[in-house]
Amino acid sequence: MIINVGSKNPNKLEAVRQAFSENGLLKNLEFISFETISGVSNQPIGEDNVRIGAENRALGCFRNCDLSVGLESGLIKFSGINTGYMNTTLCAIYDGEEFFYGMGSGFELPKEALKLILENKMEVDEAVHAIGLTNDPRIGYKEGISSILSNGAITRTYHAKTSV
């Protein structure tokens, strides 16, 4: 079974690989990663933008495969919490006819980072770098902000895998 993944981010590819491989029901899996365009802003905000980004990534890599997977991380409004937003990952799996969805765990970002994202249109990576939580300007391609905030307990790969 060939599964295409609409991202070159090694964490997203590994998350999909682990989720499908650990399933145990599917055999002879081959994973191919493609650079795709989400069609939404670099830092999606809102349920629709996160979903559309995931769908576009799955559609963008659906070719010569059995399934394609799009993962999109973004901020979703959530009432009653400190910042009003949760950072989560949405997964769209496409079989050529319809989508199937999953959503991963969510967490709040530090208020200072969220302010930079909302007011200055920064991506999460840029914002957490700007407030000094990391020296790495592309933390999402490494361990991820979830790993920093959880002291290594929740890696970027694991956070993305919870959505698949």
What would you say about this model in short?
The chain has 164 residues and is an alpha/beta fold. 34% of the residues lie in helices and 21% in strands. Helix 3 packs across helix 4 (124-130).
Structural summary, described in words:
The structure is a single chain. The chain is α/β, with parallel strands linked by helices and 164 residues long. Helix content is 34%, strand content 21%. The chain has six helices and five strands; from the N terminus they run βαβαβββαααα. It has helices at residues 10-23, 47-60, 111-120, 124-130, 145-149, 156-161, and strands at residues 2-5, 30-33, 67-77, 85-94, 99-103. The protein has a five-stranded mixed sheet, sandwiched between helices. α1 (10-23) links the parallel β1 (2-5) and β2. The longest helix is centred in the first third of the chain and has 14 residues, at 10-23. The radius of gyration is 15 Å and the shape is globular. The two termini are 17 Å apart.
